[in-house]
Amino acid sequence: MTEEFTKAPLHNPHDIRVLIIDDQPSSGALIKNILDSINITTVDIATDSDSAFQLCKNTRYDLMIIDFHLEPNLNGSELLAAIRKRNHISSHCGVVFISGDRTPEVIVTSMSIHADSFLTKPLNIGKLKKRVIAIYQACLLRQPIYTALDNHQTSHAIELCRQLLLYKGHNLEIEILLIDLLIEQQDWQQATQLLTTFSQHTNNHKLILRQARLKHRLDETQAAIHCLRSLIKQVPLYVEAYDELATLLQQQHRYNDAKVIAQQAMVLTPGICHRSLLVAQLAADTNDLPLFFKAGKVLATHLPIIGNDWIASFAEFTAIFEQLVSQQLSLPQKLLISLKTIQQHAKRRLTYKQQATLADFSHITLARFAFSTQQPLKAKRRLLHGLARYYGKMSQAPTAIMIDALPLLIHFGETRLIGEIYQALMSGDLLDDYSYRRLAQLGGNKFLIANIRLLISQLVTAKSMLNHDPHRAYCIYQTILRDYPYCTEAHLGRITCLLPQPQFTDNHINDSLYLIKKMPLPPPLSGWFTQLQQQIKDEKTIINV
């Protein structure tokens, strides 16, 4: 028996560090007084998201008490998810949600992000006291296990779960965690045996969900589907069961059935983005336009406004939109108008700074749409307008914007911006799931990567010859433009080669000017272009004289 579990967890109330997050100072003060009555005195209060982040960054709390409804357009579940993503709280930290709103949406949303408890206002003082102590005791028990998981020691975490259950007996939270870890490790036999044993203590809905998962892993998918349908009837607010069932039906290509289940989950928790995105995907798979845009509206009006998660979610929705457009034989313009309506819903929810980012992303989306409808020049102008704010500071661009811009940049041969994005991605934070998948798709195209490397080499060679061998440089630029007819650097190079040559007419120069004017160019290309424009102006002045 390890030392972690040889003694019952004791608590000194003065040692419990609690953070109360409530936008009503009077409510936070009331809770603090209740905690003080049971000698919990190390208590901080945050009245907004900024102060909550700062406090969590400076202090490792044992327990957080969060009001569900906080600032406009921000609820407690979104704030908790953002704090967890930044690793500002420990994985074993206890969480209690409180709210005077008792609607299923609030309760289910709160509990679906792994909170320990939900209490309704007005608070019952006795119940709050008991719940706080009980949750802190549970935190002490699970702390060694979660520490092992944080250190990627899954086998050790499994052993700690076993020891705790052996020493302490039935503990539903630890039993579920142990089953999840065994399933993750693909130890089907142990998971099956323990599930049978644990189910003798209680027929809890969370254990039934694990039974369904295990059946699916053992290729008993139909039995798993039946199990999940029964579970939803028994516990209609258990939204994780809807998720599991919708995913299984989707994998079985039963898209219409999956769509019905996924939509029910979205209605229960409209603030959870991955559920509206699943509905959008299933709607696209079944060519259900009304449901697709309904899911889009739900997503847009519930986007998480902290950080850049919102743009990743919106980018994923837009990618599904492109799939939907490709399936239509007509009316793509109507679809585009509907997408713009969704963007307007999102704009009303976002902050001023985020609205500017949405405008950038919209330019890139419209660029992709213009390119798909054979309007390459319009596409390039839109693309560069979407990236212009980040010239010279690409690391400040959200990864979703950079990733969505890359395919078009590659097609147009914009190697300067490709290089900037590559450097930003290599030196930046971990990619979100959407960006990771999109980048993996690009990275898997070895032919495409080889062509870009060749293009970079050709551009470097041509520029090095501009002064001492302009004819050779011109030939290289011409070769590049056959493969990349919209490559800005190649057009600038060609103009540079042509200007001193009287045998070439203005038409050759004008062709290149037409393809690069009226669009923001990144440095140093913008400076090069300005220099050429002045040179052309001077040449015309000399001719007129």
UniProtKB/TrEMBL annotation:
**Annotated ranges, domain Response regulatory:** 17-136
Taxonomically, which superkingdom? Bacteria
GO MF assignments: phosphorelay response regulator activity; transcription cis-regulatory region binding
Q: Name one GO biological process term.
A: regulation of DNA-templated transcription
Residues bearing 4-aspartylphosphate are D67
Keyword annotations of the record: DNA-binding, Phosphoprotein, Transcription, Transcription regulation, Two-component regulatory system
Its Gene Ontology cellular component terms are: cytosol; protein-DNA complex
Q: What is this protein called?
A: Response regulator
Organism of derivation: Photobacterium kishitanii
